[in-house]
Structures are given as C-alpha cells and as structure tokens.
Amino acid sequence: MKEYIIELKSRVAVYIPVREDDVDKRLAEYINNYPDRSKLKIMFMRESEGIYLFGTRKIYVRVENNKIIIRVGGGYLTIDEFLDIYTPVELDRLERKDPLKKFSEKVAVQRNLVGREVRESSPVRSPIRSSPTRSPSGRKSPKKSSPSKR
After folding, report:
1. CA separation, residue 116 to residues 100, 112, 113 (Å)
2. Stretch (H or E) spanning 5
3. Domain residue spans of the chain
4. Tens-digit pLDDT profile for the chain (150 aa)?
5. How far apart, in whole angstroms, are the C-alpha atoms of residue 11 and residue 4?
6. How far is CA 24 from CA 32, 43, 81, 86, in A?
C-alpha cells in the first residue's frame, strides 16, 4: 500500500501549463514526466509566452523538431543539457542569498572571535605604531612650526 501511495504522488502534476501556450504544454509534459523529480530542484516560472525564470535567470524557451530548446548566449541547448549545466549554478546562487545561512555563519564567526579574545589590529589604530606627529600615548602632538624664510 505504501509503495502505491508513493507511485501516485510521483504521478501528480507538478507543473500545470497555460492552455493556449504550446511551449508551456511541452515544458509541463517534460517536467511532469521527468524520471527523477528530486533532480528538478529549481522550478520554471512562466513570465510570458516562451519566457521563463529559472531560479534567478531569465530564459527563452522554444520547441523545434519536437524538442525543447533553451537560448543560452548566442546558441541553444536542449533542456537536458541546460538542466545539467545551470541547476548547480542556480542552487549555488540561492544558497549564497539565503539570509538564515548568512546570519548563522556571522554568529558562528563572532562566537569564534569572542571565544579567542581576538581583536582587530589596524595599523591606523595601533598604539604601538609611532610616528613623528604622535606622542607615545597615541594622541597627536602639536606640530612644530619651522622658521619661515624671508
């Protein structure tokens, strides 16, 4: 019974096309019949006829000779080639934009720095650095005026 439910879930339409759009129908057929749906981690979002968003990328899709092709640069890729190349790229982009991940990484870095008592060492703020215009206390000392030539 459990296997039957899993099989039914895999048959449920993931992508529902716009009725009048042949390209969208073909894309829906491809997505809904894709053998391993777990690999389709980035969805195609239709903007208008033949124009879709794939993650953060705007793509142009056509059907030629009964094959779905996607415009890339100056040429075209089949949908399988496109997914193989651009799914990892888009997943990486989405991962970098994840605000929760950024926040947790920042907190981890702060904990690490505070735990080790690491302080920022800047040559501008360093009290060790001495210059002719600074006193040993780090404060600016008044400049001595040079005698003017007349």
Report:
1. 25, 6, 5
2. helix 2-11
3. 2-100
4. 777 666 665 566 678 899 899 999 999 999 888 877 667 788 899 999 999 999 889 999 999 999 999 999 899 999 999 999 999 998 888 777 766 666 666 666 666 665 555 555 545 554 555 555 555 555 555 555 555 555
5. 11
6. 12, 13, 19, 20
Report if pTM > 0.70: no
The DSSP annotation for 78-128 comes to: EHHHHHHHHHHHHHHHHHHH-HHHHHHHHHHHHHHHHHTT-----TTT-SS
List Cβ neighbours of 143 (8 Å cut-off, separation of 6 or more). Answer: 133
For tokens 């780090």, the residue is: 138
For residue 11, how many C-alpha atoms fall within 13 Å in the half-sphere facing its CB? 6
Q: What is the CATH number of domain 2-100?
A: 3.30.920
Alpha carbon 43 to chain centroid distance?
15
Task: Say which residues have a Cβ less than 8 Å from residue 138's Cβ, sequence separation at least 6.
Answer: 127
**CA 74 → CA 27, 80, 86, distances in Å?**
22, 18, 16
